[in-house]
């Protein structure tokens, strides 16, 4: 009789542990569902759970460790541009498939699928707007669209934006994030490097300001061209910036690279970028730089005084 009671007691104890384990797994599944639903965000750097609304209020920068989560182009525009001042440029431009390229699938199919999935025509937004009341021309790349790769439309939109800025005498800001040139467009993609660089040179000849902002990641042909041609080059903390990838360089050199290689901090140390600016301070920093580099206009009374002085001197 005693043995039966003991066995029942042990059995009930095992049942209790089993039920507890099962309820624990249920709560874990429930927690994962809540995270998946977007209520909470787990930091990929420190692992801290943050309320998504609070994280967005902090511009997607982890409040605990300062990790900069990737943001899309629409969110970036909202962070930088004053309300009701954004005017998009060249939204009608759409990519084509001139080479009829095919890898695992047709390039035309890949374009259509990406456009339908994320709602973008290509990997860059361009437009005119204001930062703290100061007019600028802004280009924002989006890594979600085929790794932010630079195709013909990206090059054409950025070139047209720069030319508009030169004509209006606006400063240019380009937020860069890219895996490089778009291989599906071959030489046509590589040509965009020279085209954008030429437009920036004309902008520079007009004595106007250009500021690239390098975010994670900025690599390939973008780094080899307009990302490094700025008058003042800014970067976000811990951003990966370089031309070839770490693995390719290690295989070529046959040696292990330092952990901080191709980080914004390493580039700042070696003089490739001018400053590292946290995202929460970026808008005000850009506004200060733009205000300091406004074109100097000679007041009308000064022009009149100089004309009168020259006339009187000629008469004497």
Low-confidence stretches: 310-316
Strand content: 5-15%
Q: In the CATH hierarchy, what is the class of the largest domain? A: Alpha Beta
Q: How is the main sheet built?
A: 7 strands, mixed
Gross CATH architecture of the largest domain? Alpha-Beta Complex
- Strand numbers in spatial order across the main sheet: 3-4-5-6-7-8-9
* Strand and helix order: HEEHHEHEEHEHEHEHHEHH
Give the rounded overall mean pLDDT: 87
User: Could you give the count of β-strands?
Assistant: 9
Helical fraction: 40-55%
Q: How does the overall form come out from the CA principal axes?
A: globular
Our count of helices gives: 11
CATH fold node name of the largest domain: 2-enoyl-CoA Hydratase, Chain A, domain 1
Structural class: alpha/beta
Describe this structure in words.
By secondary structure, the chain is of the alpha/beta class. It folds into two domains: 2-37; 71-300, 2-enoyl-CoA Hydratase, Chain A, domain 1 (Alpha-Beta Complex). It is 46% helix and 14% strand. The chain has eleven helices and nine strands. The chain has helices at 2-36, 52-57, 73-80, 107-118, 152-168, 186-205, 220-223, 246-253, 264-269, 279-292, 300-315, and strands at residues 40-42, 49-51, 87-88, 124-131, 134-141, 172-178, 210-218, 234-235, 275-276. A seven-stranded mixed sheet has the order 3-4-5-6-7-8-9, with helices on both faces. The chain has a two-stranded antiparallel ribbon with strand order 1-2. Helix 5 links the parallel strand 5 and strand 6. Helix 5 (152-168) packs parallel to helix 6 (186-205). It is globular and about 85 Å long. The termini are far apart. The relative contact order is 0.09.
């Amino acid at each position: 009789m005693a043995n039966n009671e003991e066995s029942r007691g042990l059995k009930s104890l095992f049942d209790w542990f089993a039920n507890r384990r099962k309820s624990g797994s249920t709560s874990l599944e429930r927690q994962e569902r809540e995270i998946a639903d977007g209520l909470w965000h787990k930091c990929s750097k420190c692992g801290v759970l943050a309320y998504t609304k609070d994280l967005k209020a902090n511009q997607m920068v982890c409040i605990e460790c300062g990790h900069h989560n990737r943001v899309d182009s629409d969110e970036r525009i909202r962070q930088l541009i004053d309300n009701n001042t954004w005017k998009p440029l060249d939204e009608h431009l759409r990519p084509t498939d001139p080479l009829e390229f095919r890898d695992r699938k047709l390039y035309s199919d890949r374009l259509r699928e990406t456009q339908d999935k994320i709602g973008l025509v290509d990997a860059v937004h361009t437009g005119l707007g204001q930062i703290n009341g100061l007019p600028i021309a802004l280009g924002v790349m989006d890594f979600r669209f085929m790794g932010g790769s630079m195709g013909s439309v990206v090059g054409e939109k950025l070139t047209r934006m720069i030319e508009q800025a030169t004509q209006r005498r606006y400063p240019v800001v380009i937020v860069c994030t890219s895996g490089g040139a778009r291989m599906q467009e071959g030489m046509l993609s590589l040509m965009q490097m020279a085209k954008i660089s030429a437009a920036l040179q004309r902008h520079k000849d007009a004595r106007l300001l250009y500021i690239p902002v390098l975010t994670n990641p900025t690599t390939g042909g973008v780094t080899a061209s307009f990302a490094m041609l700025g008058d003042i080059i800014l970067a976000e903390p811990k951003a990966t910036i370089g031309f070839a990838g770490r693995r390719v360089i290690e295989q070529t050199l046959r040696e292990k690279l330092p952990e901080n290689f191709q980080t914004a901090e390493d580039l700042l140390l070696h003089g490739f970028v001018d400053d590292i600016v946290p995202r929460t301070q970026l808008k005000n920093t850009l506004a200060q730089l733009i205000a300091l580099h406004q074109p100097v206009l000679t007041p009308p009374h000064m022009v009149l005084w100089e004309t009168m002085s020259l006339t009187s001197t000629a008469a004497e």
